């Protein structure tokens, strides 16, 4: 099998091709385009020994190698852009630590009242607040007034306060017996930290609770 000669001398950083020749470094190869690579192959064909030509499998290996390297470099570039974007958002969220956010994600209840943002459907004459525990099971259902605004929820039942833990809330609005809407209720909790995760920026909240940035609908001073 004859060696493959690149159109320009290969540097010390060049990688050996399966056919015995050399290829440009991955960063240089991926930095160009596929048309440039095809021109290189054409040059190799013109300079090969006609009595000992390259086999078709060698072309296939080179094409596959180039395609794989190009795809890997593009993937790395994309991941780098995503990381930079996330870190930029994380830096902006540093100012959120110590403040309160309103979120529909589960929040921690430890016996102290939680502030809930109540927004019943227009025209509702009866409103129920439904409380779910960390497993999504209904823990409490109570009638509240049809008014709109913030309320302090004490988490009390006929048998006393609910156990400490994570809870989420939803509001069911009625007109007579007709259900007008069922919607998540936002609760306020203090931000204690933030981290970048595979799902996006996640805010740490008291009691082991957390919320993704996209689950936050309001921010205020604690």
UniProtKB/TrEMBL annotation:
Lineage top rank: taxon: Bacteria
Domain FlgD/Vpr Ig-like: start-end pairs: 108-175
Stored Pfam families: FlgD, FlgD_ig
Keywords assigned: Bacterial flagellum biogenesis, Cell projection, Cilium, Flagellum
GO biological process per UniProt: bacterial-type flagellum organization
Presence of the UniProt keyword Isomerase in the record: no
Span list, region Disordered: 1-28
Family, per entry: Belongs to the FlgD family.
Biological function: Required for flagellar hook formation. May act as a scaffolding protein.
Name of the protein this chain belongs to: Basal-body rod modification protein FlgD
Naturally occurring in which organism (per UniProt): Paracoccus chinensis
């Amino acid at each position: 099998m004859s060696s493959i000669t690149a159109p320009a001398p290969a540097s010390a950083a060049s990688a050996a091709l399966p056919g015995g020749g050399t290829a440009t470094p991955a960063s240089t190869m991926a930095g160009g385009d596929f048309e440039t690579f095809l021109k290189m192959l054409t040059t190799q064909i013109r300079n090969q020994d006609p009595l000992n030509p390259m086999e078709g499998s060698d072309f296939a290996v080179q094409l596959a190698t180039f395609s794989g390297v190009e795809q890997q470099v593009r993937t790395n570039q994309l991941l780098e852009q995503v990381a930079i974007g996330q870190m930029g958002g994380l830096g902006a969220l540093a100012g959120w630590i110590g403040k309160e956010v309103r979120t529909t994600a589960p929040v921690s209840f430890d016996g102290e009242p939680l502030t809930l943002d109540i927004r019943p459907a227009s025209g509702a004459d009866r409103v129920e607040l439904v409380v779910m525990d960390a497993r999504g099971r209904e823990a409490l259902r109570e009638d509240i007034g049809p008014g709109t605004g913030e309320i302090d929820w004490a988490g009390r039942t006929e048998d006393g306060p609910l156990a400490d833990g994570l809870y989420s809330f939803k509001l069911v609005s009625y007109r007579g017996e007709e259900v007008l809407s069922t919607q998540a209720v936002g609760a306020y909790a203090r931000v204690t930290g933030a981290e970048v995760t595979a799902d996006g920026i996640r805010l740490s909240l008291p009691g082991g609770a957390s919320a993704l940035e996209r689950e936050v609908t309001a921010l205020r001073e604690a």
